[in-house]
Amino acid sequence: MKIESLIARHLYQAKKVTIQNIGTFYLTGEIAPDSDPDKVAVLPENSISFTFDKNAGADEALIGFIMQQTKKIRPLAASDLESYSMLAIQFLNIGKILEINGIGCVVKTQTGTYEFNQGHSVNIISNENQTEHEKKEKKNTSDFSSKVKKKSLPKWLIPVILIIITVSTMIFLYLYYSKKNSSNPNANKNLKPSTSQAASSPESSTSSNTEEADNTSNTINENEFKIVLKEFKFNEKPNAESYLKKLKGYGHSPIIYAHDSISYRVAMTFKRPQTDTAFLKDSLNTFFSVKSFVDFK
Fold first, then answer.
1. For residue 253, what is the domain's CATH number?
2. CA–CA separation, 201 vs 241, rounded Å?
3. Contact criterion met (CB below 8 Å) for 226 and 272
4. What are φ and ψ of residue 41, in 5° steps?
5. What whole-number distance in Å separates Cα of residue 287 and Cα of residue 282?
6. Residue 201 lies in a domain
7. C-alpha to C-alpha distances, 10 to 44, 64, 150, 176, nearest whole angstrom
8. How many domains does the chain divide into?
9. CA distance 6 to 59
10. Three-state SS string across the chain, please?
11. Is residue 161 one of the residues assigned to a domain?
């Protein structure tokens, strides 16, 4: 319960209450607490008077009343009352009106004294009804808390949501980077290679390999070209064939051919406009990690 409410209740019982460094309030007549805690009790006019005393000490009777109502030990009760008094003085010093529920209002005049104006009505709660009133408030608070807990998400659902978000993010990143990395190879696969692609392995002599290369060159028109992925020395034929087999294992269609009787070349053939050579060469460099070059022969 608030200190100001206890001050008013003590005044109604003891007819006198002192607030430290502010002054003393006096009550004339009787104000009986109503049995109905929600009913408004009316204060008779001029039933409360006030005496300003800037040096007023602590009210021991009020401290005892606070101890009785709050079940606190004396040092805590005295500390609460002193804190209220200090805050009230600070409030008055900045020109604000100090309203004490059930008693009235105190204001600070220009001369530095405190002036009191009595209130007219207040909600009074008797000792017996106070306990019931507190129980009702606690019950309402408990019901509200239980409703909030019911509406909140189950504890097990939070980690599930986090897992779903994490997995979804990982899938999105995987698909994004997979699409980005495979964009160049897909462009190469969509290109239609020349129907004249053939793996011509030179098996006889150097002259026969040169003849096959010349025959192939004669069948290529001006829009057909090769992009050489890797070039091997003539005595490295097994390595060239192994590299060719490796690329075919990946689902590609490269060819191998002899070049000027001094080397073997593994290449991809295309039938495209010559303006596409730069794009195709860059794509193959990225996909196969090579330094390719164009062969128009």
1. 3.30.70.1070
2. 8
3. no
4. -90, 135
5. 9
6. yes
7. 17, 10, 42, 75
8. 2
9. 13
10. CCHHHHHHHHHHHHCEEEECCCEEEEECCCCCCCCCCCCEEECCCCCEEEEECCCCCCCHHHHHHHHHHHCCCHHHHHHHHHHHHHHHHHHHHCCCCEEECCCEEEEECCCCCEEEEECCEEECCCHHHHHHHHHHHHHHHHHHHHHHHHHCCCCCHHHHHHHHHHHHHHHHHHHHHHHHHHHHHHHHHHCCCCCCCCCCCCCCCHHHHHHHHHHHHHHCCCCEEEEEEEEEEHHHHHHHHHHHHHHHHCCCCCEEEEECCCEEEEEEEEECCHHHHHHHHHHHHHHHCCCCEEECC
11. no
Tell me, yes or no, whether 96 and 25 share the same domain.
yes
Instruction: Determine the residue type at 72.
Output: K
Q: Domain containing 49: what range? A: 3-128
Phi and psi, residue 17, nearest 5°: -150, 140
Q: Is residue 240 part of a domain?
A: yes
Boundary-marking domain end, from 128, 143, 169: 128
pTM: 0.42
The per-residue pLDDT string of the chain (297 residues; one tens digit each, 9 = 90 and over) reads: 688 889 988 888 889 999 999 999 998 877 755 545 555 567 788 889 999 999 999 899 999 999 999 999 999 989 999 999 999 999 899 989 998 888 889 999 999 899 999 887 664 554 444 555 555 655 655 665 565 455 566 777 888 898 999 988 988 887 887 776 666 554 444 444 444 444 444 444 444 454 554 554 444 445 788 889 889 888 888 998 888 888 887 777 889 888 877 888 899 888 888 788 888 888 888 888 888 888 887
End residue of a domain, out of 98, 128, 158 = 128
Q: Residue 53: is it exposed, middle or buried by C-beta count within 10 angstroms (0-12/13-18/19+)?
A: middle
Q: Is residue 184 part of a domain?
A: no
* 213 and 110 together in one domain: no
